[in-house]
Write a structure and sequence with these properties.
Length: 225
């Protein structure tokens, strides 16, 4: 069934491409290049409502495991496959990329009316990824990727050896909404730490509630009932 597996994985790849098209709406900026004699704005931030709708779509179709993409008729012939989980994780990685978050922060300064505030976005994204009392294996993997991405924002990797130093002579001029942010000089590390604290707080609350439920079930009143 090697050909079946190839076609199946290509189909998952096409689905992932569509999901990434939706992801580009979040932090999106429309660019209409003009000459000086042409009227109108060059940069237009995608309206906040459309960005939030895109996140809601991804929450429903990516974060919630799309079981229809694992048909028994196929998986029983090619065996377990990690391609879907990998593609799901790729969407989460993209949504927490420094480039996207930096673009959203820049959009907030540029057009506060239409921009999706970064703090609000991160809160919405955390709720979408960490919702549900009993996450399945795919959701748990997404949550691990989420934490790893936050860690990368708190302690970003060192710049590649031999790269141009910040402020070095001859450095290219930053391109609006394109040039990646300097993470260490931005709000991203602090926002990532705040997200981790929220996740830790929710995890402790869930553990306490689970312990309380377990105690009730095993207590004397359980047996009397």
């Amino acid at each position: 069934y090697s050909e079946l597996q190839e076609v199946y994985e290509e189909s998952i790849g096409r689905w992932a491409g569509y999901m990434n098209h939706v992801a580009t709406v979040i932090g999106g900026v429309n660019v209409d290049l003009k000459t000086a004699d042409q009227a109108g704005a060059v940069f237009r931030v995608v309206p906040r409502a459309r960005q939030k709708a895109a996140l809601a779509f991804l929450s429903e179709n990516v974060f919630t495991t799309p079981a229809w993409l694992r048909p028994q008729e196929i998986t029983s012939r090619i065996g377990p496959s990690t391609v879907l989980a990998t593609r799901q994780a790729g969407v989460v990685t993209s949504l927490l990329s420094a480039a996207r978050l930096g673009r959203m922060a820049e959009a907030e300064r540029y057009d506060a009316t239409n921009a999706y505030p970064l703090v609000e976005y991160l809160s919405d994204l955390r709720r979408a990824v960490w919702s549900g009392a009993s996450p399945d294996a795919s959701r748990r993997q997404l949550q691990r990727v989420y934490v790893q991405r936050l860690e990368a924002l708190i302690a970003p990797p060192a710049p590649a050896a031999g790269g141009p130093a910040a402020g070095a002579g001859g450095a290219t001029r930053p391109i609006p909404f394109v040039t990646a942010p300097n993470i260490t000089q931005s709000d991203l590390p602090a926002l990532a730490r705040a997200q981790l604290r929220e996740i830790q707080r929710d995890a402790r609350a869930a553990a306490t509630a689970a312990t309380a439920r377990s105690s009730v079930r095993t207590g004397p009143m359980w047996w009397i009932a």
